[in-house]
Amino acid sequence: MVNIGQKIKEELQRQERTVSWLARKLNCTRAAVYRIFDKNSIDTALLTSISQVLHHNFFEELSDEVKNGMTE
């Protein structure tokens, strides 16, 4: 199963962005961003916001996992 929080953290690091930057973009605290990193699942509205801010389709990664699970 994809750990969505870890994927978000990895993408943030790949883009060389800071936790503070993401918190500002999401209008939340740094602590809230760190809590997101620890999540195995996430609200779709929040994931939509994160995907837009980071210009990365996390839904596609989740969809690929579902597709792979269906073929096994």
Map the helices and strands.
Elements: H1 4-14, H2 19-26, H3 30-37, H4 44-54, H5 58-71
Shape: elongated
Name the helicity range.
Answer: over 70%
Cα(first) to Cα(last) distance is 14 Å
What profile does the largest beta sheet have?
none
Order of helices and strands: HHHHH
Please identify the structural class as seen in this structure.
mainly alpha
pLDDT averaged residue by residue: 93
**Number of DSSP strands?**
0
Q: How many helices?
A: 5
Low-confidence stretches: none
Amount of beta strand: under 5%
Q: What is the rounded Rg?
A: 12 Å
Question: Could you list some keywords that capture this structure?
Answer:
0% strand; 72% helix; 72 residues; mainly alpha; elongated
